[in-house]
Amino acid sequence: MIKSQITPILFIILLLATVCSHSCQPQTEKELLNTSIKENARKLLEDYRLNAVSIAVYANGVGYTEHFGELDKGKANSPTNETLYEVASVTKTMTGYLVAKAVTEAKLKLTDPITKYIGNAYQHLSYNKKPITIQDLLTHTSGLPLNIEGVDELYINPSRSSYTKAQELLTYYPKDSLLNTLKKIKLEYLPGAQYSYSNVAPNVLAHILEVVYKKPFDDVLQEYLFEPAMMDNTKINLTNEEQELLANGHNAKGEVMPNFKKPIKLWGAAGRAKSNATDMLNYIKFQLNDQNPVVKESHTKLFRDLENLWIGYFWEILEDKDGMHIEHHGGIYGTQNWLIIYPEHDFGISIIANSSFPDANRLLKQTALHIFKDFKNNY
After folding, report:
1. Could you report the per-residue pLDDT of 78-103, keeping only the tens digit for each?
2. What is the pTM of this model?
3. How many domains does the chain have?
4. pLDDT in tens, 329-370
5. CB-based contacts of 211: which residues, under 8 Å, 6+ apart?
6. What range defines the domain where residue 59 resides?
7. Is residue 16 in some structural domain?
8. Which residues are CB-neighbours of 276 under 8 A, at least 6 positions away?
9. Pick from 316, 229, 280, 354: which is nearest to 58 by CA?
10. How high is the pLDDT of residue 26?
């Protein structure tokens, strides 16, 4: 009987054939998306002004979280799923969800004047006898100011010093002061007629939610959103241990910027939530559940700002060649982020960087849209 032998040349041919049988196979959708996330993050971090970025993507029932860069350059401290970031104005979408819940439960109506909940001392918050309504607060058409007293002046000439002063003012500014300030405001145009962004309006809504649910806003958030959405690490106010997980934010020069690590006095409904990639992934998944009547209500178009742009329950709702999608930007002194969700594609992305400068907003959104485009072209 003659034994078969494999010559060195035949061995090499067989080895190459085996390697090719694996490497030459087309990539799966998951592999393609992972490749896109990594490649786009690499390109983003080529900008020296950026330190680190955390990306959470939910696509076709699969979740991804990836982290890149260093939270503090030179310290080799890459972000992780536990790293907390300030998500800033993305908080407004969380407040909007709670208002949508109250609406679906008939605890309030969009057409209700806000005086129904905050009292007759605010009857003057009207123009030509048209009062501010719940819907006006949600859609930035109330006519209420952008910020609380004293903040806008500090933003005229932005610097690390002026931002530090603003952070101190906003940290210790009490709820009663905001409510008393409302008594002195005079509206300059008809509520519901004109878009004018307001960080005061969400805090008024937080107060109204406390009246409606008869419990603190933090408890309303925790019970009706964070728990059902499995956002176990998302908070307005952090414990001492949680504060250690909050990433430093930086400006374009790499300087550490002030943040809202310490507890605040106001409700924080406009922009004080801190969250991590895992929770943002769960939030995306939660927002893609079209069987949830509250989610569906919160995506309702309420005010048309531009031809293809509507405002919902604080969400910006856009119609384009990819169908309807909802989005919101969040930016603060040292952090920038975008949350963009395409319900028709079962896709959502959260992209957060612990750096903030004028161009960061555009760079992050561009990266998020590139990842979505790669997904859309390959699934």
Report:
1. 999 999 999 999 999 999 999 999 99
2. 0.92
3. 1
4. 999 999 999 999 999 999 999 999 999 999 999 999 999 999
5. 117, 118
6. 29-378
7. no
8. 54, 81, 82, 83, 84, 85, 233, 234, 245
9. 280
10. 52
The pLDDT of residue 360 is 98
Hey, what are 163's tokens?
């931002």
Rounded (5°) CA angle 90-279-259: 50
Q: Which residues contact 212 (CB under 8 A, 6 or more apart)?
A: 102, 107, 108, 117
pLDDT tens per residue across span 99-143? 999 999 999 999 999 999 999 999 999 999 999 999 999 999 999
Residue 307 sits in a domain whose CATH number is 3.40.710.10
| Integer Rg of the chain from CA | 24
- What's the CA gap between 69 and 72, in Å, rounded? 9
Would 310 be classed as within a structural domain?
A: yes
Residue 31 CA neighbour count, 13 Å, CB half: 5
Specify if 17 maps to a domain. Answer: no
What tokens appear for 152 in the block?
């806008």
User: Which among 249, 210, 221 has a CA at the least distance from the CA of 83?
Assistant: 249
Q: Do 338 and 350 meet the contact criterion of CB atoms below 8 Å apart?
A: yes
Written in H, E and C, the secondary structure of 166-210 is: HHHHHHHCCHHHHHHHHCCCCCCCCCCCCCCCCCHHHHHHHHHHH
CA distances from 95 to 221, 254, 270 (A): 8, 32, 8
Q: In what order do the strands lie in the sheet with 347-353?
A: 62-69, 52-59, 347-353, 335-342, 323-332, 316-320, 309-311, 303-306
Q: Residue 77: which H helix or E strand, with range?
A: none
* Range in 4-8, 70-74, 323-327 the model is least confident about: 4-8
Sign of CA dihedral 48, 245, 286, 310: negative
How many CB atoms are closer than 10 A to CB 25?
Answer: 9
Q: Is residue 155 part of a domain?
A: yes
Is the C-alpha dihedral spanning 123, 126, 128, 133 positive or negative? negative
**Residue found by looking up tokens 């009207």 in the block:** 126
Q: For residue 260, what pLDDT is reported?
A: 98
Tokens 């309303």 belong to residue: 220
Between CA 373 and CA 270 the distance in angstroms is 30
